[in-house]
Amino acid sequence: MSSIMTMKAWPEKINSYDDIPKVFKDFFYQRDEKFPYTVYIPANSTLLKKRNEKLLSLYDDSLSVLVNTKDGVIEKKCSFDEISYIEKVSILMMGKLKIFGEISVSLYFNTMGDKVFNKIITAIRNYLSQDKKFSQKNEDEKELLEILGKNNLKYLNSIMELIQNEATVHSVLFQPEVRKKVIQKRGEKTIFKYIASHVTVLTSSEIIHIREEKSKSMTLKTSYGTVSLIIPLEKINHVELNKDEKEELKRLIVDIEGTHNLEFHFDIANEKVEDFASMCNTIIKN
């Protein structure tokens, strides 16, 4: 495929009603005189995940997603109040943005055009965190981030890009990559244990989780990309810790309002998981 054809499949910002593709014009609505922030995602049948063309329009408290399906144009309207968390994936050249909630939306795109979604992500985060960001500063914040930088500079840079300007960092939980064989019991089979490296950060407004996607082979350690999760504290009921001695795992379970739980795996030797879970529940209750 030529570079020109590839670029035609990238998402793009739409600046006026005249620029909206014809198929969406009869379904597009404008709340006031100001044209809303709007993104067009062309149809693409060449991706591993085929996609229909979509038109996203950002409003003060909601996101409208028009989808051109074989049965015609349909609308998914995501009220910010009903959004539970956001997942952003970047694997090689394929990007994915998933908005989970009462109405969930999955957007697939070429990662070269993913910056057009930043304003949408920021708007959702600011709306859901507006009552949480302005808390007392944590004197240990700088030290927590410095330790993360010593463990994994790439994760530190990614986290610094995601932390909201007014938010305070309360806890940082890093898990190095684990690749090892585990003999469960004498006479039982040996299992291969793999935990992708990841970092989970608790701020005054959110839990931010970033993990690196790699081959799970014992010999091949190719890095494919990253997965980022942004979970507003407003949407978290509580955080649980589960120990699995047989699998040599600690599971951090985030109970989220209105959707499924999220589960993060840690090596059983990671001694900081308990304190992180306790801190999460303390901040959530406040």
How are strands sequenced across the largest beta sheet?
Answer: 8-7-6-14-13-12-9
Q: Summarize the amount of helix as a percent range.
A: 10-25%
What Rg do the Cα atoms give? 21 Å
CATH topology of the largest domain: PH-domain like
Number-wise, the strands total: 17
CATH architecture of the largest domain: Roll
Distance between the termini: 53 Å
Largest β-sheet summary: 7 strands, antiparallel
Q: How many structural domains in the coordinates?
A: 2
Mean pLDDT over the full residue set: 87
Quickly give the structural class. alpha+beta
> Which term fits the overall shape?
globular
Please name the fourth-level CATH homologous superfamily of the largest domain. Answer: Pleckstrin-homology domain (PH domain)/Phosphotyrosine-binding domain (PTB)
Low-confidence stretches: 1-5
Q: Give the SSE string.
A: HEHEEEEEEEHHHEEEEEEEEEH
Number of helices: 6
Report what the structure shows.
The chain has helices spanning 3-8, 22-25, 118-129, 141-151, 153-162, 273-285, and strands at 12-14, 37-41, 54-58, 62-69, 72-79, 83-91, 94-101, 105-110, 169-175, 178-183, 190-195, 198-203, 206-214, 223-232, 236-244, 249-256, 262-267. It is an alpha+beta fold and 286 residues long. The strands form four sheets. Strands 8-7-6-14-13-12-9 form a seven-stranded antiparallel beta sheet, with helices on both faces. Helix 4 (141-151) packs across helix 5 (153-162). The longest helix is centred in the C-terminal third of the chain and has 13 residues, at 273-285. The chain is globular.
